[in-house]
């Protein structure tokens, strides 16, 4: 079995933790593990290989995280999308890539699932049906009339009805009926079974996805071309196939599951103290049933409060009542209307060579802490509007400026003029840490002209 992991979610309801360059599936909320990493760890004992379908901007982040949990990169294949077009084409890419009789387990990278024997027993049963040509969905017994999930009416393993995201009144009737399950968004089938159904019910998505994969660069990772991606109609596997297919089977998941679509649901799965507060370094007096997340390790004090959710990051603070988690997307919408960078990135931004943290910014200058991993280097580049000053704090820097190459050690520095060709590398065995001061009339991140890049970025 091959595990196809869909990593394209943006997680706007978990802002300010989740940003477009660092979405919820990659945030390390569970003992310094992300949901993405937990998905890999949960499935790698039975998956012979993984296919990750993700946005191209998250490729190196995903690559770092699978290496952290010990997944052999030779067992991983990446399909990179320039933009997301929902799950139906994403699964089609993976299905076209493998042998038609290959069994695929399709899972989302941003779901919380408690690992248990029941989980693996359900997967084995699903694989049995998949080998017989069925498309298998895994159902979760509903605990409330949630309108954000698809509902499946079951009779044994047979699916009698599939209804994607009903209204509240309908969802309540489903709960009362007792034979309905939430659609977990996890599927199991042979590649050819899915493609036959997609071709039957959504031929346009089938054809355009097939064309896009054929035209993708014949290398690893596989990169879908922007033009081909633009021709694909967005659609989910639920609407495109699951709601219409006559070959659908359902296997119940008798394990804890949540898609973590809000801070309310995150509160439910995080460890809590005797007062119902999520465990953290805050000081809470006469307070109970609160979600407190201090990503910036800043101490939070609270007195006489209950049922609050406080999320503190280095550049944004969110305070809301429990039960209002779905409204966080409204704040994100306002920020986007103002073209705020707060929806895009944290103060620390991850790059394939390491990361940088914005320390201070003004109209005419920017100060960063830059961390370069061992044996990595930035692109050979130049800037049209800014000069740069580099001061080494720790490690060894290999610096290229124009036609010169030299070494800098801690407490040594150099200066790069506007328009001068330059490169920063780390030839050592420990992280290189430098402080960079940019000065100029324009210090935005897009003032980079890359001449040569180890990571094949434009």
UniProtKB/TrEMBL annotation:
Annotated Mannose-6-phosphate isomerase type II C-terminal domain residues: 339-453
Record key words, sorted: GTP-binding, Nucleotide-binding, Nucleotidyltransferase, Transferase
GO biological-process terms attached to the record: GDP-mannose biosynthetic process; polysaccharide biosynthetic process
Stretches assigned to the Nucleotidyl transferase domain: 3-274
GO MF term list: GTP binding; mannose-1-phosphate guanylyltransferase (GTP) activity
Origin superkingdom: Bacteria
Nucleotide-binding among keywords: yes
Keyword Transferase: yes
Reaction catalysis annotation: alpha-D-mannose 1-phosphate + GTP + H(+) = GDP-alpha-D-mannose + diphosphate
Coiled-coil intervals, chain numbering: none
EC number: 2.7.7.13
InterPro entries: GMPP_N (IPR049577), Man1P_GuaTrfase/Man6P_Isoase (IPR006375), Man6P_isomerase-2_C (IPR001538), ManC/GMP-like_b-helix (IPR054566), Mannose-6P_isomerase_type2 (IPR051161), NTP_transferase_dom (IPR005835), Nucleotide-diphossugar_trans (IPR029044), RmlC-like_jellyroll (IPR014710)
Stretches assigned to the MannoseP isomerase/GMP-like beta-helix domain: 281-334
Any Pfam family the entry gives: ManC_GMP_beta-helix
Homology family: Belongs to the mannose-6-phosphate isomerase type 2 family.
UniProt-recorded name of the protein: mannose-1-phosphate guanylyltransferase
Native species: Desulfurella amilsii
């Amino acid at each position: 079995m091959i595990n196809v992991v869909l990593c394209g979610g943006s997680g706007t309801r978990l802002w300010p933790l989740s940003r477009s360059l660092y979405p919820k599936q990659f945030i390390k909320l569970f003992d310094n593990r992300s949901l993405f990493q937990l998905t890999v760890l949960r499935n790698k004992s039975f998956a012979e290989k993984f296919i990750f379908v993700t946005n191209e901007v998250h490729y190196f982040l995903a690559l770092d995280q699978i290496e952290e949990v010990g997944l052999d990169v030779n067992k991983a294949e990446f399909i990179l999308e320039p933009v997301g077009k929902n799950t139906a084409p994403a699964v089609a890419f993976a299905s076209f890539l493998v042998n038609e009789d290959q069994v695929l387990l399709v899972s989302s990278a941003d779901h919380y699932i408690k690992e248990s024997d029941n989980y693996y027993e359900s997967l084995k049963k699903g694989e049995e049906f998949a080998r017989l040509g069925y498309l298998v969905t895994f159902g979760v017994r509903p605990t409330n009339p949630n309108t954000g999930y698809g509902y499946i009416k079951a009779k044994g393993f047979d699916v009698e009805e599939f209804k994607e995201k009903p209204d509240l009144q309908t969802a309540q009737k489903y709960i009362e009926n007792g034979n309905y399950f939430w659609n977990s968004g996890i599927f199991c089938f042979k590649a050819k079974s899915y493609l036959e159904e997609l071709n039957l019910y959504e031929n346009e998505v089938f054809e355009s996805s097939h064309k896009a994969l054929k035209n993708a660069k014949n290398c690893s990772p596989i990169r879908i071309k922007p033009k081909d991606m633009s021709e694909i109609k967005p659609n989910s596997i639920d609407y495109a196939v699951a709601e219409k297919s006559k070959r659908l089977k359902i296997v119940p998941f008798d394990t804890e599951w949540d898609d973590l679509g809000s801070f309310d649901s995150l509160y439910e799965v995080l460890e809590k103290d005797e007062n119902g507060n999520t465990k953290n370094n805050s000081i809470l007096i006469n307070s109970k049933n609160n979600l407190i997340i201090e990503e910036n390790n800043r101490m939070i004090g609270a007195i006489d409060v209950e049922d609050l959710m406080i999320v503190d990051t280095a550049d944004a603070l969110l305070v809301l009542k429990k039960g209002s988690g779905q409204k966080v997307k409204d704040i994100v919408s306002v920020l986007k209307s103002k073209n705020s960078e707060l929806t895009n990135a944290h103060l620390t931004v991850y790059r394939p060579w390491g990361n940088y943290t914005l320390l201070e910014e003004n109209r005419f200058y920017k100060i960063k802490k830059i961390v370069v991993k061992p044996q990595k280097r930035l692109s050979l580049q130049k800037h049209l509007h800014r000069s740069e000053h580099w001061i080494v704090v720790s490690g060894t820097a290999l610096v290229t400026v124009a036609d010169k190459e030299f070494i800098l050690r801690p407490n040594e520095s150099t200066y790069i003029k506007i328009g001068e060709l330059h490169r920063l590398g780390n030839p050592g065995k420990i992280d290189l840490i430098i402080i960079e001061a940019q000065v100029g009339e324009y210090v935005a991140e897009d003032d980079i002209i890359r001449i040569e890049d180890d990571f094949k970025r434009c």
